Amino acid sequence: MRVYLAGPDVFLPDAAGRSARLKAICTAHGLTGIFPLDTTESIPDAWRALPEARFIALCNEAHIQGCDAMIANLTPFRGPSADAGTVFEIGYMRALGRPIYGWSNDPADFLARSTTFTGAVPDAAGERRDGEGMLLEAFGMHDNLMIDGAILASGGAIFTANPSPHARWSDLSAFTRCVAALAG
Cα torsion for 81, 144, 74, 163, to the nearest 10°? Predict the structure, then answer.
């Protein structure tokens, strides 16, 4: 089974090393991990003339289309939620009707993370609102309801870990549990 490994891992200082570690865990469970930075098998000539950002986006879409499932790193990235590119990829895979599993190294729910990030306070009715008066989601989900909803509707699950702050981007225990669940 080919599995697309979505997430902000491509931005880590040693993205190639991270790719190798993720793929090794997949291989140990009988899966083939496909990292976003992997070379796309068949690149149409027309893509090569495109701006780099568009080229990368098309290659990642081709990777997703060529995979049987997805495992997405949902560890909050540059805010209280998952990486925006990863969220797009989850939606893309969901539209293809394939299984999606998620993992995160932050076990707090979306409301707690959003409250901390925005400094939200309860309004007169007791609902949390940010500094612009916008209501925060209070569904007890790991991330925005559409992210969790897509993963759960696909038959997948979300796994979390709570590593020390210095291991936030290196601990792979939740990822390993995610791989084992998909492989099982």
Answer: 70
